[in-house]
Write a structure and sequence with these properties.
About 25% of the residues lie in helices and about 30% in strands. It contains three helices and 15 strands. The strands form two sheets. Strands 1, 9, 10, 11, 12, 13, 14 and 15 form an eight-stranded mixed beta sheet that branches. Strands 6-7-2-3-4-5-8 form a seven-stranded mixed beta sheet.
């Protein structure tokens, strides 16, 4: 799968002599075949300075840095080809086209389309409903096999093509990450607070029990009788004492 916007400004290189024939300025789409038909170059040689085109069948490869062709003979004037000439003069615009289902539902506007490098077949549409919706929710992708018509005013897809694949935006991914991190921190905070509360309760309970164990005796209780010590020389308590005078 190759994105169409990636082609813009890529140089086209001839493998035969290594010459750069120009840079990609646009594409030609065949609406009946629903495929990429040719590339439009910003080539400006000659009296008429007419843009040149390269038919898809002459393209060797689509790379990240350049598009390659076998030789410079593959580069043609836009009006020379009986098939591509009318498509060049009355182009079918994919980018910016509205996408409707056969039962009349609006799905969005084409922001990008993808094609197969080997066949040129359009195999995916990238839609957006609005800038804010795209920023928050992400872009909507539709497979190319649901396309039934590529017209001048709209692209028609099969009825019931509401179940499409969602591509998350960076903002949506960040919001999801922040939410997950927040939930994790909240859970950890709850657990820490719970453990701290349990530890505090046990400490208070132990402190209270210790206070009860070491409390002084009740001062209101009457004191116990203590033996009275006799003063020196006092024999009043001596049982052998003789009360009679000597």
């Amino acid at each position: 799968m190759y994105r169409s916007k990636k082609l813009l400004t890529l140089p086209v290189i001839s493998l035969n002599d290594g010459e750069e024939l120009g840079k990609v300025q646009g594409v030609i789409v065949d609406p009946e075949a629903r495929s990429l038909a040719a590339l439009i170059l910003d080539y400006r040689k000659g009296i008429f300075k007419e843009p040149r085109i390269i038919p898809f069948e002459h393209i060797t490869s689509f790379g990240d840095y350049a598009v390659t062709i076998k030789d410079s003979g593959a580069c043609e004037r836009a009006g020379q080809s009986p098939h591509l000439g009318p498509l060049f003069r009355r182009p079918t615009q994919i980018l910016g086209a509205k996408v409707l289902t056969e039962d009349g539902n609006f799905l969005g506007t084409v922001e990008e389309f993808c094609f197969d490098r080997k066949t040129g077949k359009i195999n995916g549409l990238e839609l957006s409903n609005s800038f804010l919706n795209t920023l928050v929710r992400g872009k909507t992708l539709i497979e190319g096999d649901v396309i039934t018509t590529i017209g001048k005013s709209a692209i028609i897809v099969k009825a019931g093509t509401q179940s499409v694949v969602k591509e998350e935006s960076h903002l949506s991914e960040k919001a999801k990450t922040v939410k997950e991190t927040g939930q994790k921190v909240w859970h950890q905070t709850k657990e820490t607070t719970k453990k701290f509360g349990e530890s505090l309760y046990k400490s208070v309970e132990k402190f209270t029990a210790d206070e009860e164990d070491y409390s002084p005796a009740d001062s209101s209780a009457p004191p116990k009788d203590k033996p009275v010590d006799n003063p020196p020389g006092d024999n009043s308590t001596d049982p052998t004492r003789n009360d009679k005078a000597c």
